[in-house]
Structure formats: C-alpha cells, structure tokens
Amino acid sequence: MSKRQLHLAAHFPGVNSTTVWSDPASGSQTDFASFVHFAHTAERGGFDFLFLAEGLRLREHRDRIHDLDVVGRPDTFTVLNALAAVTTHLGLGGTINTTYNEPYEVARQFGSMEQLSGGRSAWNLVTSSDAFTGENFRRGGFLAPEHRYRRAAEFLQVARACWDSWPAGGSPGWVEHTGEHFQVRGRFPLPAGPQGHPVLLQSGDSDAGREFGAATADAIFSRHTTLAAGKEFFADLKGRARRLGRRPDDLKILPAATFVLGDTAADAQERAEHIRRQQVGPATAIAFLEQVWGRDLSGYDPDGPLPDLDPEPGGVSITRGRVRHEKDTLAVARRWRALAEQRNLSIREVVVEATARQSFVGTPTQVAEQMDDYVQAEASDGFILVPHLTPGGLDEFVDTVVPSCATGAATATATPEQRCANTCWAGRTGRGCSPAERVHRAQWCSCGPRPPDCSGSPRSPRRSPGPAC
Amino acid sequence: MRLAVDLSGRPEHPALAVRAEHWVDLARLAESGALDFVVFDDSFVPPGGGPGEVGRLEAVAVAARVAPLTTTVGLVATATTTHTEPFHLSKALATLDFVSAGRAGWQPDISRTAEEAALFGRKDAAPVDALWREAAEAVDVVTRLWDSWEDDAVIRDVATGRYVDRDKLHHVDFRGEFFAVKGPSITPRPPQAHPPVVLRLPAGDEPAALALIGRWADVARVPSVDGGRAGAADPGVDGLAADGAGRVRAAVRAAGRDPEEVSVLLDVPIGPTDAAEAVVDRAAAALGVGLDGVVLVPETLPGGLRRAVQEVVPLLVGRGLRAPGPGRRTTLRERLGLARPANPYAGGFDATATAGPVGGTG
User: Fold this and answer.
1) What gap in Å lies between CA A15 and CA A70, rounded to an integer?
2) Does the residue B362 lie in any domain?
3) Helix, strand or coil for residue A188?
C-alpha cells in the first residue's frame, strides 16, 4: 500500500492566546506587509493554501472587550484579493459566515476572487447563531441553533446555483431560488472561474456540523490534534462521506496544528515551554480560569492554587464572541483540579498544561516524522499550521522542516512519482495548481518517495483537469 | 486641477472585464499619467448594452487586487449601500486602505431597481429618496466604525499583559432609521482614518442625494449631460457644470461644512472620435466656471484611457493645468488637500448625541 501524502496549509496568526504578541519578533497584525511576508513564506514552502479566520465582533470578557490577546484584523476578502497580486500559486482561503451575509453577495465575492486569483479561492463556510455578533448587523443575526445548518445548506445551494449559472466560455443563465431562508432571482454577473467553485472548507464539530461537512466540504478544518481523537474524527468523517455516496478521499481532514522547532529535542522542549508561558501570561491565566468558573476571580494569584469554590452552575459563559468547544465547565474544572493535585501545579501552570500544549515539538526531522506518522495512522490528511508569531512564524518551518519532508522542489533527485507531484506544483499552464487540484492531489510527498494520487477527483466537471501525470 | 478617470467604460473585448490583468493594466496606465485617482464602477447586475456578454467583478476586490501593483494612484471603489451591511463595508474599505498604503477611496451608490432587490429577496425596491437617506446613514455608520478604534489603541503593554487599551475601542451604538450597529469595528482605524468619499450628483432632481453630498462628499462629481431637471432649459455643458457646482457648494454650506474642502469635478466623456483638444477645452472651461477639475470617462477601455494618458494629459501639462512628472507617493487625502481627521471619540465624543437614544459609548 502506498504511503499517504501530507497536505499543509498556513493559518495567519489569529486573535487568541496562541498568537504571541509580546515577543520582540512579533510584528504588525494589520499591516499588509505582514500578510505579504506570511504568504510568500507559505508559497515558498509549497503550502496548499493560506488561511484567514474571521470573527465579526470583538470578544468580550466579563462585559468588557478582551484586551489580553491580539485584537483586530483586516477584512478577509480584501486581504486575499490583494495577496492574489503578490503570489502566483498559493491557495487563498478564509472564513466567511453564512449567518451575517447574503448568498448572492458572497457568491459574487468568491466569484470575483476566483477570477482575480486565477482559480485559487477557498471558503471556510461557518455558521453562527449568537445574537451578540448579530448586534453589528441590521437584521440582527440570531438564528435558532437548529436552523444554523439548514440556513447554511440553503446558502451554499444558492451560491452554487450562482456559480453554475454562467459556465466558462458559455452564456450567463438565470438563478431562481425559493426556499425556507432565501429567495433569489436574477442573473449572476460572473462566468465560472477556473475551479468552478471555490474549495469548500468546514469546521463544524456537532453532529449536524459533521454531517453537513461530510456532505458538502472538500476539506474539514478540525481541531482534533491528539492522535486518538484525530483517528476517531477521521474515521467518523470519512465514514459519513462514504455513507453519503462520496469517495472518502474527496474529503480531506486537516486539523489545526501548532509546532515548535529546535536544534535538539531538548532545545525544542525548552522553547516550547517558553512559548507556552508567553501565551499564558498571569492575566491570561486568570481570564481562562474565569471562563471555566464563570465568575470574577481577579483576586486570585495566578501563581497560587486553584480556587476552592466550584464553578457557577449552568455553565454560564462570561466570554462572548468566541466559539466554546467545551460546554461542560464543571467537568473541565474537575479535570483541572485533578491535574493540579496530581502534579502540584499553580493556576497558571494548569492553564498552560490544559490550553497551550503544542501539537508537534522537536527537531525539524522529528517534527516531519511526527506529522507523517499522524497522517500514515489516518488521523488526518495533513495540517493547517498555526504559527505563534506574525509574520515570521512560518519561516523556520519552511526553511527546515519542508526540506526534510517535501520533494516538490527537489527536481534533480526526484523519482518519477515526485516529478509528477512536481509537475502538479509547476502547473500544466504555468499558472500552478488550483487549491482544488492540490487538495485532491498533494504536491507534498511527505518524508520519502511514494506514488502520488494522480487520479484526481474533480468535484465539478467544470474544474480544470490538472496536469497529466 | 484635479484629474481622475472613471473606469466604467466598455472593455474592447468582453472577456477583459473579468481579467485581473485588464484592471492592473488600466490602473498602471492611469498611474503613468499621474492621475489623482481611478474609480472602479460597480452594481449587482451585469453591465448592459454592447456586444458580447460582459461580466462584472466586485469593485473593492478589483481595487484590492490592483493595490499592491501600484504606488501613487488613488483607488476609489464603488460600493452600494442598499443591500450590503455597513459593518462589512466599513472593514472592507478600511482594509483597502491598509493594502494600498492610504490610497483608498469610496464611491457610495444605491441600488435603485427591483432587479437588484430580487437578487437579495429581502425587501422591495424603495423610493429613491429613501435609498439616498439610507446611503447617508450607511456612510455615517461606516465612518463611525472607522473611528471606533483610536489610532493608538494597540499598546502591547507587556508589563500588564494588555495588547490593546480597551478604553480606546468604542461601541458606536448606532441606531438610525435603517440600521442598528453596535461596534466597534473588527478592523483598526485605517491609515487615512477616513478614506475620501466620492459622490456623484445625480443627473435628475434627487434632493436626498444632494443632502448626502452636502454632509459627506470629499469629492463631488457633476454630470455633463442634462438629466432633464424639471423646468430647466438646456444650459449647455458649462452651464450644467456651473449649476451643479453651485448646488453642491450650497449643499455643503447648508451642512455646516466649508465648501472649499470639497473638490467638485466635472465628468467628461471621451468617445472614440473626440479630439484630445476638445477634451482639454472642456476641462479648462470647467475650471473657468469654478470647478476643481475633471473626471475623464473613456467610453471604451483600454483605448480610451490610453488616449487620455497619452494625448489629453500632455496637453493639460502644456497648458500649465497639471504638474509634469510622475505622481507623488502620498495618501489620497493628501492628494486632495484633505487633512487626516481627528478622532471624535478621542475627545470624549458622545456618539449617541446624533445617532439616537442609546446610551453609552463604551
């Protein structure tokens, strides 16, 4: 059996405690130069795509804007379109929310990006149901949770009808949709781009979210980074896809992953510990604690023991504007208590352990091997890497891990299989692969030669066929 | 004189309209003529008329795609306010300003037709007066969101662990006739603070549009074709220009602003058979009746723009109306002689005083 290939994407450091802003090497989170630097590194490293997250209201903690993490970022579409000007083959993906947008407008925005990027766009379709974010929009935005995915599915249906209405080289057609959430009628103003549709990512983790992703997505942006959880999630999603009549390989599983590199394993561990303490400063430790306990704990010493009192019952969130993955705060508190007692940890040390463990730590070779092991164990198809520094957080990885792992650039010694991957990389038209092409056939041949998947699996017959292998 | 170009003209080949290279070439051509800014047109419906099927890209996206490949020319994107959320508009335009290093501008417009309303299915086409009032409210909200971050909000205070001074981030708490927006923006205050607002004076009589111009325009575009305003005899182009400029300045004054701060520009079409000399004469005449410059509107692209840059610009330079040489690397506001606005929130501005009954500025 051939070895499985590794896909990599690059997540621009976001607005949470993973991003370290206090480091002297930390640059601007908003200047375009930071995005250019990051995109150039990702492109140089042969990544499938760059990824921008988006949240539509600044987070609040205890009714005030959360001030301990990076705050503020530019608009997703506008940054990605500008990056299309300074890159040639890097995929350009971002989060766009279906709850606070209209399908015709989003279809037009992705249709524009498809044309302006030469077929490099990718959409992480997210849903939301919180009225807090809705306060920034004229229609509010609260959506009953059971309607989230129904609206999202219908939203996507309308967007796809728009993209399909004007075949490349053909004439514009008509879009006519009447449904539960949307009524859209008229002409779509853009011919289909090179990919037909943008690559579709999803990150929902509920049962409804998993089912929606398995039915519609090209890739799942998951958060399951331990090997056991990764394998469970991978098997679940691929199984759902199979049950829905899709080829499991047409749905890629890409967990978010953090990493720390060092000259030796010990050096990497030391750096990882330092970064974790940067990520969880004293004030951040207390803020995390307050999120779980649901109450003001500002009087506690972050270097002291966990509070004796129990969390507020009912799991009331005092942080708004961010996704809560853990609903049962009492259970979290129990785990943290056990951890603290077992290892005699302070508040800050517990929070570091519970929230800031990096996915991969080691020398470049070790990290390449760890990542490869994970993929070979069918815990994922690759990773969306989340560096902790803007804009240089990916540089070391690309300079050191990619050469020990990738073969895309190594033409002189490449096997025929690698040259196939390399052909895909260079692109038949000289334009490079679209993200769709690359999500379906990695140009990365992770850690050693193996036959790439050259069969392709175009979701849409309109998508460009990709290079011959 | 100020000199700009509107890129709404018909592409000489229909396929060009959706090609990035077409728009990059146009912006670079405009830049080679040291034009002050280009305007990217937009509407939710495809452009009508002409042979072949012409697509239409979103204007802010086009401007963003062009921005890193140009250095001096202002990039004014049309964005309509009738169906789009002001919160999205605010961050998109702020970001255009970041990616262009302070060269962004915004031409707000309305979606008048039932055809456009049917693409959204949210509401029926409204009377034009209401659409302009809604546009005015959208510009107001967008501007407040730009100001919702003070310039020095990001403090990166390692000692206290605070990235941002949250006292310098402001809930705008806007409640108007059409919108309610909490804020603050998710995007910091853009380099120019307020990318200039370019507004077109409608050819017909639309009082609410004039009110919007009076309150918000940094640049007002006056049409050189007669929209058939009731009771007016054909005044000729110079008469139209003088009349339009007079109405704009009166509206600006009525809004309590200094009319000298608004650039009033005449739209001057360039057809395939128009001589460059005639275009230049038209521009000079506009200056003669008190306007500040012109917006050239080539009917076809890129040919019309090439003629503007290669033939019209040298004549304007020859007559001493435009400075010779390349454009300077400045912000668009600087180019237009506009100061970077102070942030009203920084002075304890009460955002609710004009927005409505909601208390607290956060």
Assistant:
1) 5
2) no
3) coil
- Within a domain: B208: yes
CATH code of residue B110: 3.20.20.30
How many domains would you assign to chain B? 1
pLDDT in tens, B5-43: 999 999 999 889 999 999 999 999 999 999 999 999 999
Beta bridge partners of A260: A361
B109: left (phi over 0), alpha (psi -120 to 50) or beta: beta
Over range B131-142, report the average pLDDT: 98
Nearest-neighbour CA in chain B from A226: distance (Å): 29
Q: What is the mean pLDDT of chain A?
A: 85
Give residue-wise pLDDT tens across range B143-155: 999 999 999 999 9
Q: Do B156 and A22 touch (CB under 8 A)?
A: yes
Q: What is the model's pLDDT at position A311?
A: 87
Neighbours of A170 (CB within 10 A): 12
Does residue A459 carry a pLDDT above 70? no
Contacts of B119 in chain A (CB under 8 A): 104, 184-186
Domains observed in chain A? 7-263+359-440 (3.20.20.30), 281-355 (no CATH)
- A32/B179 touch (CB, cutoff 8 Å), yes or no: no
Q: What is the torsional sign of CA B98, B99, B104, B110?
A: negative
Q: How large is the average pLDDT for residues B312-316?
A: 98
Residue ranges in A100-206 assigned as alpha helix (H): 103-116, 131-134, 145-165
Q: How many CA atoms lie within 13 A of B338 on its CB side?
A: 24
- Is B361 inside any structural domain? no
Selected residue of A116, A157, A183, A278 to mutate for chain B interface (largest B Cβ count, 10 A): A116
A187 vs B61: CB contact, 8 Å cut-off?
Answer: no
Of B56, B84, B99, which is closest to A78 when you measure between CB atoms? B99
- Give B230 or A260, the one with higher predicted confidence: A260
B252-259 contacts at long range (C-beta below 8 A, 24 or more positions apart) = B252/B213, B252/B214, B252/B217, B253/B214, B254/B214, B255/B211, B255/B214, B255/B215, B257/B214, B257/B215
Instruction: Identify whether B360 is part of a domain.
Output: no
Phi and psi at residue B130, in whole multiples of 5°? -65, -35
Which chain A positions have a beta carbon within 8 Å of B22's beta carbon? none
Q: Other C-beta atoms within 10 Å of A187: how many?
A: 17
How far apart, in Å, do the first and last CA atoms of chain B sit? 43
Determine the number of helices (DSSP H) and then strands (DSSP E) in chain A. Answer: 16, 15
Angle between the N-to-C axes of helices A265-279 and A347-355, in degrees from 0 to 180, rounded to the nearest 10? 110
Q: Residue A128: its pLDDT value, please?
A: 84
Indicate the SS3 state at residue B64.
helix
pLDDT tens-digit readout, B252-294: 999 999 999 999 999 999 999 999 999 999 999 999 999 999 9
Residue A204: its pLDDT value, please? 86
In whole angstroms, how far apart are CA B55 and each of A14, B43, B51, B143?
35, 11, 12, 31
Q: What tens digit of pLDDT does each residue of A391-414 get? A: 999 999 999 999 876 543 333 233
Nearest to A36 by CA among B51, B64, B74: B64
Domain limits for position B162: 2-355
pLDDT at A141 over 80: no
User: What's the burial of A173, exposed, middle or buried (CB within 10 Å: 0-12/13-18/19+)?
Assistant: middle
User: What's residue A139's pLDDT?
Assistant: 72
| Residues in Cβ contact with B260 at an 8 Å cutoff, skipping those fewer than 6 apart | none
The answer to whether A290 touches A62, Cβ cutoff 8 Å, is yes
**Distances B36 to B39, B320, B335 between C-alpha atoms, Å:** 10, 16, 7
Q: What is the pLDDT of residues A157-213, one digit of tens each?
A: 999 999 999 998 888 889 999 999 999 999 999 999 999 999 999 998 899 999 999
B74 φ/ψ angles, rounded to the nearest 5 degrees: -70, 145
